[in-house]
Design goal:
Distance between the termini: 71 Å
Radius of gyration: 23 Å
Oligomer: single chain
Number of helices: 17
CATH architecture of the largest domain: Orthogonal Bundle
Strand order of the largest sheet: 2-1-3
CATH topology of the largest domain: Lysozyme
Shape: globular
Helix content: 40-55%
Length: 358
């Protein structure tokens, strides 16, 4: 018997490889509408990227590896259950999918279509050849976000008041979810400290930083410093997407990116700016922040288990009634009234923040 043609052998290998590697189907699920309450700008075209981070924060656990496209994170190739969660295991998963993509790229165009759907999202065959270097593996963060939501309750009321007094959007209060998971003692390898992950150069001279005292760990003193930085960045750059990006990338770097691209639209900069320092974390920082805002303001829908543990905050949206909220969260109307000191004649207001406790 003559040997099978090379393309047919490749297809057979791919069938086995895809069957083994694509372990968990990615199912669509209905979630709260993005940006239903936020006053911050959601740039056109950024919604899929934001939804990806909503899923990372609220859908996928630390025990799952999300294999996706670095350039377009919303293109999820697979969700793989983890055994250890160690870096070595994540590297192995990445290498396996890179090899898989290389094999797909070798198959003639007419032979790829039966297999592309097994990657769990629609993939343009023309993208496959260049996708090897764009494979990225991200652990889910649901447990991390859940703990951050619980910790944030200690600080959010005061932080919002500080922001309101400075005339800044109250949604900025959720930025520590991305920066520190609301851990006042958080420290980065680069030397950033506290809820807001302030660097020494940013915090001085407003805060004391020496061997005995580091006021960056003080939640409200640090809030005022971070708020002033964000206000200055907004005044300089002209919009919140760029100002919040600058919080991660630096004001000078963001100004340089705007000049290089010739646009003040964050989506243009994400797509067009080429710089070694303008990496994945910077490109996704604003989308991560908006995802954190969304998850925080819809926490009861994403983390219903927190209602009966420590309580969660619900931001009133159009159509909400006490009866609907009580049914949704499995509590009584009277429990909601009592937790929020609402009279029986009180009306709910759009944007009102309600504490929901079981």
């Amino acid at each position: 018997m003559s040997p099978a043609p090379r393309s047919r052998r490749s297809l057979g290998w791919l069938w086995v490889g895809l069957w083994l590697l694509v372990a968990c189907p990615v199912e669509a699920r209905e979630t709260a509408r993005l940006g239903s309450q936020t006053k911050l700008e959601i740039p056109a075209g950024l919604e899929p990227r934001i939804q990806h981070w909503v899923d990372i924060f609220a859908r996928y656990s630390l025990g799952e590896a999300v294999v996706h496209d670095r350039q377009n994170p919303e293109y999820v190739l697979a969700v793989v259950p983890l055994k250890t969660g160690r870096t070595s295991e994540l590297r192995e998963i990445k290498a396996r999918y890179q090899e898989l993509i290389e094999q797909v790229a070798r198959v003639p165009a007419w032979g790829t279509s039966p297999f592309l759907h097994l990657f769990q999202v629609p993939i343009d065959p023309r993208r496959i050849a260049g996708a090897v270097e764009r494979v990225r593996v991200q652990r889910g963060q649901r447990e991390v976000m859940g703990k951050s939501l619980v910790r944030s309750r200690r600080y959010l009321t005061r932080i919002r008041r500080e922001l309101r007094q400075m005339g800044l959007p109250e949604e900025l209060a959720y930025l520590p979810h991305v920066e520190s998971s609301f851990n006042t003692e958080a420290r980065s390898r680069a030397g950033a400290v506290g809820l807001w992950q302030l660097m020494p150069a940013t915090a001085r001279p407003a805060l004391r930083i020496d061997r005995r005292v580091d006021e960056r760990t003080h939640p409200y003193k640090a809030t005022r410093v971070a708020a002033r930085y964000l206000q200055h960045a907004h005044d300089t750059l002209g919009n919140w997407p760029l100002a919040i990006t600058a919080y991660n990338y630096g004001l000078t770097g963001t100004m340089r990116a705007v000049a290089a691209v010739g646009s003040e639209r964050l989506t243009d900069i994400i797509e067009q700016h080429e710089s070694e320092s303008f990496g994945f974390a910077v490109r996704n920082f604003y989308a991560q922040f908006l995802a954190a805002v969304h998850v925080s303001e819809s926490a009861g829908e994403y983390f219903p288990e927190l209602v009966n543990e420590n309580g969660i905050e619900h931001v009133v949206r159009p159509g909400d009634t006490l009866w609907d909220l009580a049914r949704r969260y499995g509590v009584t109307i009277e429990a909601i009234r009592r937790a929020n000191m609402l009279s029986r004649s009180a009306y709910l207001r759009l944007g009102q923040r309600l504490l929901i406790q079981g």
